[in-house]
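Q: What would this complex look like in 3D?
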Amino acid sequence: GAVVSQHPSWVICKSGTSVKIECRSLDFQATTMFWYRQFPKQSLMLMATSNEGSKATYEQGVEKDKFLINHASLTLSTLTVTSAHPEDSSFYICSAPSRAGAGDTQYFGPGTRLTVL
Amino acid sequence: EDKVVQSPLSLVVHEGDTVTLNCSYEVTNFRSLLWYKQEKKAPTFLFMLTSSGIEKKSGRLSSILDKKELFSILNITATQTGDSAIYLCAVYSGTASKLTFGTGTRLQVTL
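A: Here is my prediction, written as structure tokens for the whole assembly.
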């Protein structure tokens, strides 16, 4: 099946620094990718939809200036957490639909665990 | 706003038991309902349901959708310790073009 990778798998950073997380579709092209956040013992919350070649669509309550999304190619989307704070510590997961328009068949990356000290 | 509710929140059973996990939803322009299993990392896909009354089965796991009553169940028979995980239900809206996840059911299977 299709594979989505994320890098890094986990990261620890100091408060105030920025962290970039990469999401790649390894054997298929993805014009759309989704970024989710999952706090401990909670479900996945969609943060934003990343669109290749255009601006991301953010969910209500997600600060676009804090969570910068760039989808520069058909196989790569990046999420940058700017000026990270301890409350940003979470598990960040990306996903990509198996084909255009098939948003209900999403392949999930392995996730990135972010800890902000 | 689209909404997905799962019950129970948490469940502990003995190996060999059968469990039923519930998922109810309210969504605009329903397109599909999906079940995922999440262990320590990202969710892994179990089933996608689009039609009422048609059971999907994979080994000891099965699932069915009722679009009239807006719910789905996930059954696991003869549970094993390896079934311990969080089971997530998600609904895809054709209008919103996104998945909405429920809070999940945490299943623990003990010896």
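A: To summarize the key features: Chain B has a mean pLDDT of 93. The longest strand of chain B covers residues 30-38.
Q: Very helpful, thank you.
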